[in-house]
Amino acid sequence: MGPRSAAAFLLPTPAAALHIATRSTTRLVAHRRTALRSPLAGSRSGGSRARHVPATATMTTGAPAPTASARDAYEAVCERVREISRLEGVAGLLNWDEQTMMPEGSAAARGAQKAALAACVHDKQTDAALGAALEAAEAALSAAAASEPSPLNEYERASLRDARRSYDLTRRTSRELAARVASLQAEAHGVWVAARKANDWDAFAPMLERLVSTAKEAAVTSRPALADRPYDACIDMFERGMTAARLAEVFAALKPRLKALLDEVAAGTPPDVPACLDGGPEWDVERQAALSKAVATAMGFEFSKGRLDVAVHPFTGGPAPTDVRITTRYSTGNPWEGVSGTVHEVGHALYEQGRNATYVDLPVADPLSMACHESQSLLWEFCVGQSRAFHKFLTPLLHDHFPHTADVTPDVLHAARNRVAPGLIRVDADCLSYPGHIFVRFDIEQGLMDGSVAVADVPRVWAEKMREYVGVEVPDAASGCLQDVHWSGLAFGYFPSYTVGAMMAVQLLGAARQALPDLDAQVEKGEFVPLREWLRVNVHEVGSLYASLDELLVAVTGRPLDVDGYVEFLRAKYAPVYGLADK
Amino acid sequence: MGPRSAAAFLLPTPAAALHIATRSTTRLVAHRRTALRSPLAGSRSGGSRARHVPATATMTTGAPAPTASARDAYEAVCERVREISRLEGVAGLLNWDEQTMMPEGSAAARGAQKAALAACVHDKQTDAALGAALEAAEAALSAAAASEPSPLNEYERASLRDARRSYDLTRRTSRELAARVASLQAEAHGVWVAARKANDWDAFAPMLERLVSTAKEAAVTSRPALADRPYDACIDMFERGMTAARLAEVFAALKPRLKALLDEVAAGTPPDVPACLDGGPEWDVERQAALSKAVATAMGFEFSKGRLDVAVHPFTGGPAPTDVRITTRYSTGNPWEGVSGTVHEVGHALYEQGRNATYVDLPVADPLSMACHESQSLLWEFCVGQSRAFHKFLTPLLHDHFPHTADVTPDVLHAARNRVAPGLIRVDADCLSYPGHIFVRFDIEQGLMDGSVAVADVPRVWAEKMREYVGVEVPDAASGCLQDVHWSGLAFGYFPSYTVGAMMAVQLLGAARQALPDLDAQVEKGEFVPLREWLRVNVHEVGSLYASLDELLVAVTGRPLDVDGYVEFLRAKYAPVYGLADK
């Protein structure tokens, strides 16, 4: 449960991640990090609701004392954890409202209200009574270990496991440290905004020193087992169980193959893009919003359990799985941002709407991790939403909403939306050059954490790495190492999630394709619900049943994170667009 | 602090009143009942910020120990009370969102989240540590009583007084009783909706028995000093310090004079109303919304500290004085509801935006009472918004937004909007027949509380009283004693606030007129800010400084609630419209 731990650790409020997103100039995900979840126990693990219920039923009809007491003790934990989750849901609404509805004059009052709520949440998270309830449940479960069936099903045991993990993480962070972290984030954000605006690395560098040292301290304090591996402790906040070593191994395998593919594409024939697909006054934002809503509806986003609104910095948030709120933005100058952003955010939103309803407000219904959440948005945005099949669905809708595009065919649209253009800015990158941006940041973060890269050297290293991984020259700090909000938000270790998420997306889609042989034909017709349902059963409802992303991937696809499949997918994606030779 | 006490008593959540409004088919006020407030210490009492500050300054420079300790002890209370207020502000946002933004599928999750937040609030309200802090502050203040100046200014002393009052009220209500009250409200609401729909008194009667008995129990439990006067205890929830005896005295003086005025109007010449002012497709709702926004802006509603949205059941709510959210509704069939409703809600909203900012989140910045809040909406809706001067302002705006009204003059518009038509439904009543509806309900509530009216007799008594006070025949329960949401919400004692508020509005406007001799000329020109400022200084910022409405009225207008002035105002209002003789 990376998100949960990140929140528990970074700030005394669950809104840590949302905070980052609020300030982001990017489309950093801001799904709720902590609280609620939904549906029937995942069939993918062989578990089903029917299977779990008897376990409980047995106990109430004639099980031995330890069993009954394990259930009672478990329920006592659940009661406390649900209260916390509900209050975190309230915090989720405050954040959404702040970014979409709140009048400008109420920032101070809202800040005070969020702090009051965060204090309530923190008090409950660190309540010694919760610790005692956890101990009692663990003891009872341990005492009943010999009994068959287990007094708790696997989902219940996972909730207990993660409730313990969150409790320990939160207890280890003192109020003083939490306050210092929050205060540094607020200060650093202002310094970063000003430095980026002034294109002045030196204005930010001293702050980065403090940020690195505080990030280390906070990560290691909450994760004493990782005391000698501070970067692993940081990564664990977003992707639990993941390590820098494992990431380095995966990235090392990826780097040369992506480089080769980028070279191949650079030597290929770029697609012709008709001028009518560029921005302009024809791209009325109301019509863009209508198109986005039509796409979201087709994708299976349930508007009876969510909303779609406009925000300056798009995100997905909201207070509950039954109330998931997507935001997006539309401009006439960049007409594809609206629909692409909607597809991306709907991907996040479907994960949220699909939380396991049987375990609502319990840890096992939480999304597994940052990368897992990102996999859901990227599966829809890059894998489905940029496919040829999708553009057969989208083209007639586009003609309806924007008659000036009447001559554009699905293949032309598909090619136009799959251009590759390596550049300086991560958030503007196509999905082929995107991982290079992550490699740059991963290398530098590792160096900052282990001391092999000095803060003063970051601009130079950034430029070298960008040349190596992306093939571009960095002219200045503003378009280089000052472009991201993450470090000022103390989110060291967050970047790898983007690429891990993209790889996971490809891997999941491969498994889905095996289960849904007609997938392309369904997508062409705008029938997205079979895919949504497959994801719901195999990922969304599974929630945090497994303790890591690799475990989930093995259970769903038969293997851990897969480099080969990822590169093959990318090549197949761009081959028809750039006329690459068959391989 | 009627609202605060009502909330503290009715439900473990401050949202009690908002609950009622949510369910209301009427335009029951749903301003936030409990939390925040704003501005400089009221000049009206001779107090000023400058005057108060030295009192504090003195202490820090060389006052005796008891003084310094009184301030510390006071601050310790404030710290706790502010936390509660902030959480109540969050509850205010949840309520607003529920009625304007929340998708229909999230009612259950929202209910659980509201309950979790309410439990946090209740825990803090009844925390023994708050009791100890109050005792310490009271003891220190008492010990310092001989010192001059007092260690606390009058606003601070009022906050302490009301913090004590709220603490005692909340502590006296057990969790069991609070839960029973909440559960009965929920159950009764459903029964009432069904009974009203089916026009079936007998379906509601047994529930009313339970409601009366529970209302008595709850009111008396929280107010043991009123144990032998349960209706007074109920009234005290909304209008503190008010009694049935005082209301009976005021109403007794009003009744014959209103009756005489109604007769006079009935014998007068009703105004001609041009057909173009009736509903129809010309009354585009978007244009109505634009007109309402223009009016709200002119009235001085600060959009940087609030919003204006649409809701099925209009109310004013929101999380803070810097974030006051008005809702209204527009229909082509009833084009005047939108602008009238907006003027009414802006009246409430200005009170909220005008809370004393110096004492934000402290009890003294709370609105004084239900009637006082209602006085603010009615002052604007009935006294200002239905005046001849206002229609000189409104008419050109109306022509701009609705060209089909181009031939309507201010006087014709004024007359059209001042028709008197006694009818069956309270919420549709003109302001001359409105008090009659209140007399009916007051008499019946008194009877239900003292046992002189049996539940079974309510329909008969209702019909008799409506004949007597309003002059109409009641055909059935749906348009009679089943029309109001209040009883099912346990809001016995609430109705009188409407008429007391109307009287207070007239009395305040009289005082404002003395201070602002050019008021009519200002209103004609749409210059409402001088009146808003007068209200801000004399009412809004004064908040809960005084312990009762009569005390406030004496301070601002020189006399308690005034029957004569009220009747004179009404006669003067209708005389030109109905051609009444000079008196």
Automatic annotation (TrEMBL), chains A, B:
**InterPro entries reported for this sequence:** Peptidase_M32_Taq (IPR001333)
Signal peptide bounds: 1-17
An example GO BP is: proteolysis
Pfam families this protein is in?
Peptidase_M32
Asked whether the keyword Signal is assigned, the reply is yes
Any one Gene Ontology molecular-function term assigned to this protein's record: metallocarboxypeptidase activity
Q: Which UniProt keywords apply?
A: Signal
Q: Which protein is depicted?
A: Carboxypeptidase
**What organism is listed for this UniProt entry?**
Porphyra umbilicalis (Purple laver)
